[in-house]
Design a protein that fits this description.
Helix content: 25-40%
Shape: globular
Structural class: alpha/beta
Mean pLDDT: 95
CATH architecture: 4-Layer Sandwich
Bound molecules: zinc ion
Number of domains: 1
CATH topology: Metallo-beta-lactamase, Chain A
Number of helices: 9
Oligomer: single chain
Length: 312
């Protein structure tokens, strides 16, 4: 399966600011030595070896992750503002059936839906899944005046809503999909997708530390032996102390969970809107240091970044 990140930010869309762009330019200029300028090759080599957080950005769109299965199904996890970008990806005829799964309906997870071109195209078919019985009403409510100019009734008639039962697997093609309730204000659901022996878990908007010991044990069982875990890592440890019960986790708690659950790749996700690329890069470094210092088996840690593909 192929995972593609269309939106990785938490809470609300967060464009790069002028000050952040200027800070990147300043940091790049300060790294230049006279030898870096002697030829075109030297200049290109200098650029190639700059840290990624200076030459790119994790992105500012809110939660939206595409999973393309080996048997050709298109799954989308959450409809944050990143979903608008997916409108332009180009769809083969076989990709015009889209399976959309919702973790919950906080604004940052639904705001992209009215901006996703295919929802207005009658050649597309949608299967929309969540454990909430009123999903259609929730999605259509954000398209009522005065919030949006185009009503839900103008969407393709091929909208099929499916009510999920938590922890009860469903099959879509060769894939098995299971959702599990997580600790978050108003609740959130994580999704596990299994295909051809590969296991991917999307766990956004979860406060690992606020869960009871029974819940934590159940989380571990759900996450166990995943090839890739996309996990809410919005806060620093300091911030978590200031924001108990706000429903988010830290990269360090993510590392501990990944070690306990034999996770092969941990992708930090739902980045805090007030953190710039430098800060998010430093959180990745902290997470890697924390994982290494434990002496436990190594695994991959990355910051989820808009536009990135991961093959499982
Ligand atoms: Zn969120
Ligand atoms: Zn939320």
């Amino acid at each position: 399966m192929r995972i593609h990140f269309w939106g990785v930010r938490g809470s609300l869309p967060t464009p790069l600011t002028n000050a952040q762009i200027r800070n990147k330019i300043t940091a790049i200029v300060q790294r230049i030595t006279p030898e870096d300028l002697v030829s075109e090759d030297a200049r290109e080599n200098f650029i190639q070896h700059l840290p990624e957080w200076l030459t790119s950005t994790v992105g500012g769109n809110t939660a939206c992750v595409e999973v393309d299965t080996d048997d050709g199904n298109v799954f989308v996890l959450d409809a944050g503002s990143g979903l608008r970008e997916m409108s332009y990806r180009g769809f083969e005829e076989s990709e015009k059936t889209i399976h959309l799964f919702f973790s919950h309906f906080h604004w940052d997870h639904i705001m992209g839906f009215p901006f996703f071109g295919p929802v207005y195209n009658k050649n597309f078919t949608f299967h929309i899944y969540s454990p909430w019985p009123d999903t259609m009403n929730i999605l259509s409510a954000q398209m009522e005046p005065p919030y949006f100019p185009v009503k839900f009734s103008t969407c393709t008639p091929n909208m099929n809503f499916h009510l999920l039962e938590p922890e009860k697997p469903i099959k879509v093609g060769d894939s098995t999909i299971i959702c599990k309730k997580m600790f978050h204000p108003g609740a959130s659901y994580s999704y596990k997708i299994i295909e051809n022996g590969r296991q991917f878990v999307y766990a956004t908007d979860v406060e690992l530390t606020a869960a009871s010991s029974e819940e934590k044990a159940a989380y571990k069982k759900f996450f166990m032996d995943s090839d890739m875990l996309v996990l809410d890592s919005q806060y620093t440890v300091d911030e978590l102390f200031d924001k108990p019960n706000w429903g988010h986790s830290t990269c360090c708690h993510g590392v501990e969970l990944a070690q306990e659950c034999n996770i092969k790749r941990l992708y930090l996700f739902h980045h805090e809107p007030t953190y710039d690329d430098k800060k998010i890069n430093s959180l990745v470094k902290i997470a890697r240091w924390y994982a290494d210092s434990s002496g436990k088996p190594k695994f991959e840690i990355q910051a989820a970044s808009e536009g990135t593909d991961v093959l499982l």
